[in-house]
């Protein structure tokens, strides 16, 4: 199949491009390189361009004739979204509408959308299933939830079939060591601890030790990047076999605390990390854990790398590569 991967030079997108190529698909990556890396796109065609530019989209669709689209390009920082909601809505909502316009114009009707656990807000219960109410707490989460609703309407009006995948905490790196996380600035827990372990950073700050959890630190559901990508591949198969538009939560279903993640990094790397205790970060729920039974059942998705130590060791291998 010809698959357009928007944001294919980013952390998750680049792993997706690699997996699609490995599965024999023809891949076209569209990325504006605002945060992605050209050298992370390991094959297929590459177009440097922006979703804000409809002419560019016309050219991509005309020239490459994609049959399905995966959309990874968005701004992802919760705190920044509170300070700069305008750029979040423009990039994550308006630009996605441009992409959908192009799809409709060129009659491409299969769409896989990167959504987030942030569409739920503060959970009423964990693990969080798809029936949980949606009450996003910040512009980032709201921007993703808006597109989920847009997609439901586009399905009804235009027969555009979509799968929304709500990622919990994407983590880890390519087991073959070719790809990994390279955000600038880095805000995610695992790469920050790894950088503290490797000496690229002096310490790690724990955002709050007074949560209502066994060790007082926040609990998250870390899911290996390869497992996230295999869910997209499964979603593509699902749409190809006539699957109806749907939304799925993606996680392992087991939560680890910030302290447990620090311990795992120290264990895997054999290095001690300097840990500082900081205040809570605004908007952090105490626990976010996915109930991903529907993805396992309906998409026949099977995560492979569920152990935290495996996730951390692949990310550590990547961190060591950044030093050399
Ligand atoms: N944390 C620290 N210190 C740090 C960084 C993070 O203690 O320096 C803690 C956070 O408070 C949180 C946990 O580590 O409890 C994980 O934090 P991340 O920033 O790595 O991930 P989040 O759970 O905040 O964010 C993830 C995705 C976001 C998405 C969000 C949805 O990375 O893109 O889930 O809730 F918006």
Q: Any key phrases for this structure?
A:
324 residues, alpha/beta, Rossmann fold, UDP-galactose 4-epimerase, domain 1, seven-stranded parallel β-sheet, three-stranded mixed β-sheet, binds uridine-5'-diphosphate-4-deoxy-4-fluoro-alpha-D-galactose
Outline of the structure:
By secondary structure, the chain is α/β, with parallel strands linked by helices.
Structure write-up:
The chain has 324 residues and is α/β, with parallel strands linked by helices. The protein has helices at residues 11-22, 54-64, 78-83, 85-105, 139-158, 189-198, 225-240, 258-269, 293-298, 308-323; strands at 2-6, 26-31, 45-48, 68-71, 110-116, 161-167, 169-171, 204-207, 219-220, 222-224, 246-250, 256-257, 275-278, 287-288. The chain has two domains: 2-171 and 224-250, NAD(P)-binding Rossmann-like Domain (Rossmann fold, 3-Layer(aba) Sandwich); 189-220 and 253-323, UDP-galactose 4-epimerase, domain 1, CATH 3.90.25. The chain is built from ten helices and 14 strands. A seven-stranded parallel sheet has the order 3-2-1-4-5-6-11, sandwiched between helices. Strands 12-9-14 form a three-stranded mixed sheet. β1 (2-6), α1 (11-22) and β2 (26-31) form a beta-alpha-beta unit. α4 (85-105) runs parallel beside α5, α6 (189-198) packs across α10 and α8 (258-269) crosses α10. The protein is globular and about 55 Å long. The two termini are 37 Å apart. Bound molecules: uridine-5'-diphosphate-4-deoxy-4-fluoro-alpha-D-galactose. Uridine-5'-diphosphate-4-deoxy-4-fluoro-alpha-D-galactose binds next to α6 and β8.
